[in-house]
Design brief:
Strand content: 25-35%
Strand order of the largest sheet: 2-1-3-4-14-13-12-9
CATH superfamily: Class I glutamine amidotransferase (GATase) domain
Number of helices: 6
Largest sheet: 8 strands, mixed
Radius of gyration: 16 Å
């Protein structure tokens, strides 16, 4: 079972339709028991980091997700879902402490910065692979994907970075560590590039 995690703030239907288009039905999941039974996990997301963690916490999903990752179950985080994989985010009220994340990957989430850029970063931009990854099989360097985000991930180690994208700064747009993947772009809006990424995840 491929479980699409519903924690209350995600645009789930478009992601679900993308998987269905590829012949891989997904099960909408919002209970710990369903997460524990899943063969693969998708953590989508739009919106604020703290709201995302609150949604997971209120549904009792944090520890089941962590346990399934420890068991080696493949998990992909999409957009906000990628950011939630990390230790903490500075997307908080002024003066507040960083918001803790899932800590499946070491690092933090910071606001996009760069001279003359508009935030959020919205639109098509290129993926520049920095190492091989099962997730990017069949995708050429410089392929375009569709982004909508104001914050980016800063992994603690460069070894988890699979691809970067340039927008005011080079940021990690695809990450991988063991059975955990993250993509900052929206695959369901990224045409053939996005569909190929999802095919690769299905085959993982």
């Amino acid at each position: 079972m491929i479980a699409l995690i519903d924690y209350g703030i995600s645009n789930l239907r478009s992601v679900q339709k993308a998987f269905e288009h590829l012949g891989a039905p997904v099960t909408l999941t919002n209970t710990p028991d369903q997460v524990r039974r899943a063969d693969k996990l998708i953590l989508p997301g739009v919106g604020a980091f703290a709201a995302g963690m609150d949604g997971l916490r209120q549904r009792g999903l944090i520890e089941p997700i962590r346990q399934r990752v420890q068991d080696g179950v493949p998990l992909i985080g999409v957009c906000l879902g990628m950011q939630l994989l990390f230790d903490e985010s500075e997307e908080v009220e002024p003066g507040a402490q960083p918001e803790p994340g899932l800590s499946l990957l070491a690092g933090r989430v910071v606001r996009l910065q760069g001279d003359g850029i508009r935030v959020p970063h919205m639109g098509w931009n290129q993926l520049e692979p920095v190492r091989g990854s099962r997730l990017l099989r069949g995708i050429q360097p410089g392929a375009y994907a569709y982004f909508v985000h104001s914050y980016v991930c800063q992994p603690a180690g460069e070894d988890v970075v699979v691809a970067t994208t340039e927008y005011g700064q080079a940021f990690a747009s695809v990450v991988e560590a063991g059975s955990v993947w993250g993509i900052q772009f929206h695959p369901e809006k990224s045409q053939q590039t996005g569909l190929q990424v999802l095919r690769n995840f299905i085959a993982a």
